[in-house]
Amino acid sequence: MATICWKSCYEIGVGTFDAEHQNLVRLVNALYEGIRQHQGELLAQEVLDELILYTDKHFQHEEQYMEKYNYPAEARLHHQQEHQGLREQVLAYRQRLQSDPQNLLLPELFRFLRQWVLDHIVETDMQFGAFLRQHSVYDCGPPVL
Ligand SMILES: [Fe+2]
């Protein structure tokens, strides 16, 4: 298990969303640091709450630009379903953590988030980024940070 080291191949080519993705990675890495430093219990709830708020804002931001530039319906639906899936999974983990005094769940949660974030960025967000770039959109306003 290791933190996510940001690489240029994770960039989707739209500065606004690349900055937001780096922030998302920072939050996932913060969870790992909490586990490593054995502050897991305190930190996990805090980081998860921040992650829930942040993913909501970030997903809304992406979805707003899908609408604005008429991202094709099928791709949009698939993308939104992935966002919704993550929201549900994170809320379920948050619930489970409340009855996990030994924090046995934390490494699993970190692995899940690490995998989800990277898979979503390099596949689903990358396709959306390519669409925006095809429409010469490289900036979607200030990043939500
Ligand atoms: Fe996305």
TrEMBL record:
UniProt keywords, alphabetically: Iron, Metal-binding
Organism ancestry: Bacteria, Pseudomonadati, Thermodesulfobacteriota, Desulfuromonadia, Desulfuromonadales
GO molecular function, one term: metal ion binding
Family to which the UniProt record says this protein belongs: Belongs to the hemerythrin family.
Keyword Iron: yes
Domain (Hemerythrin-like): residue spans on this chain: 14-129
InterPro entries membership: Hemerythrin (IPR050669), Hemerythrin-like (IPR012312), Hemerythrin-like_sf (IPR035938), Hemerythrin_metal-bd (IPR012827)
A Pfam family recorded for this sequence: Hemerythrin
CDD domains reported for this sequence: Hemerythrin
SUPFAM superfamilies documented for this protein: Hemerythrin-like
Superkingdom classification of source: Bacteria
Protein name: Hemerythrin-like metal-binding domain protein
